[in-house]
Amino acid sequence: MLNALIVGASGYAGAELATYLNRHPEVNLATLAVSAKSEDAGKLLSDLYPQLKGRIDLALHGMTDPQALAEQHDVVFLATAHEVSHDLAPIFLSAGCTVFDLSGAYRVNDPEFYTNYYGFTHQHTDWLAKAVYGLAEWQAEKIQTAQLIAVPGCYPTAAQLALKPLLDRQLLNTDFWPVINATSGVSGAGRKASLKTSLCEVSLQPYGIFTHRHQPEIATHLGTPVIFTPHLGDFPRGISETITCQLTQTLSREEIAAIFHQAYDGQPLVRIYDEGVPALKSVVGLPYCDIGFAVEGQYLILVSVEDNLLKGAASQAVQCLNIRFNFSSTLSLL
Amino acid sequence: MLNALIVGASGYAGAELATYLNRHPEVNLATLAVSAKSEDAGKLLSDLYPQLKGRIDLALHGMTDPQALAEQHDVVFLATAHEVSHDLAPIFLSAGCTVFDLSGAYRVNDPEFYTNYYGFTHQHTDWLAKAVYGLAEWQAEKIQTAQLIAVPGCYPTAAQLALKPLLDRQLLNTDFWPVINATSGVSGAGRKASLKTSLCEVSLQPYGIFTHRHQPEIATHLGTPVIFTPHLGDFPRGISETITCQLTQTLSREEIAAIFHQAYDGQPLVRIYDEGVPALKSVVGLPYCDIGFAVEGQYLILVSVEDNLLKGAASQAVQCLNIRFNFSSTLSLL
Amino acid sequence: MLNALIVGASGYAGAELATYLNRHPEVNLATLAVSAKSEDAGKLLSDLYPQLKGRIDLALHGMTDPQALAEQHDVVFLATAHEVSHDLAPIFLSAGCTVFDLSGAYRVNDPEFYTNYYGFTHQHTDWLAKAVYGLAEWQAEKIQTAQLIAVPGCYPTAAQLALKPLLDRQLLNTDFWPVINATSGVSGAGRKASLKTSLCEVSLQPYGIFTHRHQPEIATHLGTPVIFTPHLGDFPRGISETITCQLTQTLSREEIAAIFHQAYDGQPLVRIYDEGVPALKSVVGLPYCDIGFAVEGQYLILVSVEDNLLKGAASQAVQCLNIRFNFSSTLSLL
Amino acid sequence: MLNALIVGASGYAGAELATYLNRHPEVNLATLAVSAKSEDAGKLLSDLYPQLKGRIDLALHGMTDPQALAEQHDVVFLATAHEVSHDLAPIFLSAGCTVFDLSGAYRVNDPEFYTNYYGFTHQHTDWLAKAVYGLAEWQAEKIQTAQLIAVPGCYPTAAQLALKPLLDRQLLNTDFWPVINATSGVSGAGRKASLKTSLCEVSLQPYGIFTHRHQPEIATHLGTPVIFTPHLGDFPRGISETITCQLTQTLSREEIAAIFHQAYDGQPLVRIYDEGVPALKSVVGLPYCDIGFAVEGQYLILVSVEDNLLKGAASQAVQCLNIRFNFSSTLSLL
Question: Semialdehyde dehydrogenase NAD-binding domain spans which residues (chains A, B, C, D) (predicted)?
Answer without folding.
Answer: 3-146
